[in-house]
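for the recovery benchmark. tokens below, seq after
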């Protein structure tokens, strides 16, 4: 079935988790999570960076409606997005790091390039 991955959660739970993970990614530069979550986070983070590349009120409000911390939004517009002004996509990198010890879920590190 094409579209988004459900990740074993209801829509509201999934949205809240992904918003938190994208915010954390912008705040810290990289996060460690499962491969499927990393792919979803990568997609959403790239969309936010693309929006933030053009700094105007409408785009700031769009990003603020998704990213959960206001200071992270300012960091995105002032520091992160300007680095990619000449780049069209490919702002994140997913690196697989092997299975998780408890349940053998495939783990990955997602980071801003």
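predicted aa per position
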């Amino acid at each position: 079935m094409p579209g988004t991955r459900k990740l074993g959660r209801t829509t509201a739970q999934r949205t809240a988790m992904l918003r938190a993970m994208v915010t954390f990614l912008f705040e810290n530069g990289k996060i460690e999570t499962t491969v499927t979550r990393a792919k979803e986070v990568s997609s959403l983070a790239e969309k936010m960076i693309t929006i933030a590349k053009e700094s105007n009120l409408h785009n700031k409000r769009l990003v603020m409606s998704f990213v959960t911390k206001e200071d992270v939004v300012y960091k995105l517009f002032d520091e992160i997005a300007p680095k990619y002004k000449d780049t069209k996509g490919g702002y994140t990198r997913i690196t697989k790091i092997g299975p998780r010890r408890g349940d053998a879920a495939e783990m990955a590190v997602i980071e801003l390039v």
